[in-house]
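R.M. (postdoc): so does anyone remember the format we settled on? I'll just put the structure tokens first.
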């Protein structure tokens, strides 16, 4: 209370702010610089980042030089881009604590159609919920494969408009991108999932072609015009490049066999036991009046023969799309009720795609590194436009400290204030579990500056500060690791108890304290990876002053 009135009284205060205040105070008391020089931050932006970062850090040390800086200060790289001109500002700023956002789960719902291989089951309409921040196509394919009891590699997802496939999605496509397309009401986009046969799915790309099968009812109306109408969903099918025209006919017959099965002359005892190849020969090939014809792009009729289909199609269609060949199945005989192909059923919502059960610390770091647009009240002044802009800002950790303090931003508020716990506006607390490693937090790929090319930045946890309760009423506890015994302890006011290390990771973790493993050369030993005999790199913990003893 004597040094900082904001911590006065018995109201709930923020532990993160208290930690920052105490460490800043210790730094000032231990600062080796007794008379701070005035430094004008005017760095040549044409210089390489390394030069600017080094100059900025050197100027920081001219005013701040203590054990707190030695151990706990790192450096950010901040990139600000003007939305109106090419101006980019790059600055390097020191930090004591790295505040990480926690990705908010925003669940959205989509519906799609699921087509099983060779019409083994009716087409299905299925809905699912997904996490807009994290969910990708691979997760949806996994959920569909569990529903179909098949391999997820047999599932292909595509965006369809007017019974035509516009795009096939790869596994890493974010589902939010798919939703953006489908939400465009000016288009008739729909999401389809197609189950491929196990044999065709394992074929390499150069061993197969992709067929888009469309089923059309053609009715003769006038000499110069026929009525054409799609009778069912399109189908997607892999087909071997060495497959014959006969095999294509047999494949399509497997799709439409349900139509033949509805005919009065179809004997289930007799015909139902036949294979697709046998039934095709008896029910289609040997009859004079064919119920349908198969055409490539609706132009060239495919006959039943042993010719290689792909080679034949290339000679007949000049502008053949080799990535996706459109096959049209034209129904002309009204005796055959092609509407049997259009039966669809709605099934229960998928339950395995909603969201990640646990948010990882890596997710928080990735979100921290994403560009964000500045708010109007925090607009950036563009020196070229001569006005304030709501620019895009990106932060990266340029230089990591030996002791890294990570603050999980569990509290959010719409209003801005120096004491956001009690400022006006709506407030929320994020209570999701963030899974963080006790040992082996590898930040090598997230830190730009390293002292050597092979340096690994591996951190181990040694303490946490936890908040339980709500915004207006709560309680703080801490977890700490005894460096001599390796045991973890829970500190709850005057009560101290030994705990299992697994209990340290929980929904209440708020501030995480990590320390860097120091790299040490061990002479005389052979590096296991390259065997060059120069010695191997091992890791040891950074020795810190003993703060407590249990």
């Amino acid at each position: 209370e004597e040094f900082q009135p904001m911590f006065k009284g018995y109201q709930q205060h923020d532990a993160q702010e208290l930690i920052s205040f105490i460490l800043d105070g210790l730094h000032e008391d231990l600062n080796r610089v007794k008379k701070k020089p005035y430094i004008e931050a005017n760095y040549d932006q044409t210089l390489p980042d390394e030069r600017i970062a080094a100059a900025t850090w050197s100027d920081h040390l001219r005013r701040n030089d203590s054990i707190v800086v030695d151990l706990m200060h790192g450096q950010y790289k901040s990139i600000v881009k003007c939305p109106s001109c090419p101006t980019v500002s790059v600055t390097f700023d020191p930090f004591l604590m790295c505040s990480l956002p926690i990705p908010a789960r925003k669940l959205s719902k989509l519906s799609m159609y699921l087509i099983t291989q060779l019409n083994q089951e009716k087409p299905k309409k299925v809905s699912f919920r997904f996490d807009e921040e994290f969910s990708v196509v691979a997760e949806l394919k996994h959920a569909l494969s569990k529903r179909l009891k098949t391999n997820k590699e047999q599932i292909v997802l595509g965006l369809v408009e007017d019974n035509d496939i516009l795009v096939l999605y790869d596994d890493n496509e974010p589902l939010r991108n798919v939703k953006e397309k489908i939400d465009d009401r000016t288009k008739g986009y729909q999401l389809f999932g197609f189950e491929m046969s196990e044999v065709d799915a394992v074929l390499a790309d150069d061993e197969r072609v992709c067929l888009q099968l469309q089923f059309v009812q053609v009715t003769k109306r006038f000499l110069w015009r026929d009525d054409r109408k799609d009778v069912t969903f399109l189908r997607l099918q892999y087909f071997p490049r060495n497959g014959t025209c006969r095999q294509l006919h047999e494949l399509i017959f497997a799709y439409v066999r349900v139509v033949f099965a509805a005919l009065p002359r179809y004997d289930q005892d007799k015909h139902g036991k036949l294979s697709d190849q046998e039934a095709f020969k008896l029910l289609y090939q040997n009859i004079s009046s064919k119920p349908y014809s198969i055409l490539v792009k609706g132009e060239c009729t495919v006959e039943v023969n042993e010719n290689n289909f792909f080679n034949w199609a290339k000679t007949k269609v000049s502008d053949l799309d080799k990535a996706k060949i459109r096959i049209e199945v034209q129904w002309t005989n009204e005796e055959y009720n092609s509407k049997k192909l259009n039966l669809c059923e709605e099934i229960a919502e998928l339950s395995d795609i909603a969201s990640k059960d646990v948010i990882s610390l890596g997710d928080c770091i990735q979100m921290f590194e994403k560009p964000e647009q500045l708010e109007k009240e925090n607009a950036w002044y563009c020196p070229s436009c001569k006005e304030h802009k709501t620019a895009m800002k990106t932060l990266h950790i340029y230089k990591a400290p030996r002791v890294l303090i990570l603050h999980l931003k569990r509290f959010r508020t719409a209003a801005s204030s120096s004491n956001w716990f009690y400022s006006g506006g709506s407030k929320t607390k994020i209570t999701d579990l963030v899974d963080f490693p006790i040992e082996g937090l590898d930040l090598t790929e997230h830190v730009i500056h390293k002292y050597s090319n092979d340096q690994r930045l591996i951190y181990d946890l040694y303490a946490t500060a936890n908040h339980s309760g709500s915004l207006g009423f709560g309680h703080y506890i801490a977890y700490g690791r005894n460096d001599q015994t390796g045991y973890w302890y829970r500190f709850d006011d005057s009560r101290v108890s030994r705990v299992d290390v697994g209990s340290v990771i929980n929904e209440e973790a708020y501030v995480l304290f990590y320390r860097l493993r120091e790299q040490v050369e061990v002479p005389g030993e052979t590096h296991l990876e390259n065997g060059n005999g120069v010695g191997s790199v091992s890791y040891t913990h950074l020795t810190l002053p003993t703060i407590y003893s249990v």
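R.M.: ...and that's the designed sequence above, right after the tokens. Also worth knowing: Residues 414-426, 520-539, 545-550 have pLDDT under 50 and may be disordered. Residues 147 and 290 are 37 Å apart (CA to CA).
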